[in-house]
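Quiz preparation item.
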């Protein structure tokens, strides 16, 4: 048998939980009200889920806010209570968090090369910081589900610009799966199914349905005959 000649494609850049950190950039209660490209209830869940990634995998997190004593507001209590001892850089003027020396120092202190990022708004707080991090040599994974802005058009434009600069666009589930790699790892099924059940119930209920079927399920006559009907036996 002749082996097919394969031409290597682009490198598959994987998240490495030993070389990753999370950044929460301006996911503030006031700015939350500007988001129009997501359902408000869904988006609130998404930003808390983004922050939870660091705790679930035991990786560092850096929090930052922009002018939080004004209308931008503070970070949700659910996030700050989750990380009472994490660096929280309160910027008073810099739009791009990377322009703040304290923030740069906090990121550098984690000694990680991969940054998992989300912010409000997508086209400013996420995009500007992502592009700055890329210019410094970091690998950036932008959580598109936890970044929001004034319109879908603006989100699309920002994501396109980031992607052209090498920013990897992913959602919560893909980020969690890539950090985990294998359900048998730690954290794995035991630790992460409850996380998914809390923040991604459409997947959590897959596990719940299986649990219910195993513990309480009985097959109807129609279900027993499904395989035979499909195969014609």
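Solution:
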């Amino acid at each position: 048998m002749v082996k097919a000649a394969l031409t290597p494609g682009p490198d598959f850049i994987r998240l490495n939980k030993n070389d990753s950190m999370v950044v929460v950039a301006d996911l503030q209660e006031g700015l939350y009200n500007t988001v129009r490209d997501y359902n408000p209830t869904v988006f609130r869940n998404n930003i808390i889920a983004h922050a939870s990634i660091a705790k679930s995998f035991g990786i560092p997190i850096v929090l930052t806010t922009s002018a939080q004593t004004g209308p931008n507001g503070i970070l949700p209590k659910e996030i700050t209570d989750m990380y009472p001892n994490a660096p929280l850089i309160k910027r008073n003027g810099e739009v791009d968090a990377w322009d703040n020396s304290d923030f740069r120092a906090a990121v550098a202190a984690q000694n990680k090369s991969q940054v998992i990022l989300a912010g409000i708004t997508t086209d400013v707080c996420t995009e500007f910081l992502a592009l700055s991090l890329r210019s410094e040599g970091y690998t950036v994974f932008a959580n598109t589900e936890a970044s929001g802005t004034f319109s879908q058009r603006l989100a699309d434009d920002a994501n396109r610009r980031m992607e052209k600069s090498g920013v990897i666009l992913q959602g919560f589930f893909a980020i969690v799966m890539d950090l985990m790699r294998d359900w048998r790892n730690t954290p794995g099924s035991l630790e992460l199914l409850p996380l998914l059940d809390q923040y991604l119930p459409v997947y959590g209920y897959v596990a719940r349905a299986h649990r219910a079927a195993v513990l309480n399920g009985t097959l109807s006559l129609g279900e027993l005959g499904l395989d035979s009907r499909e195969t014609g036996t």
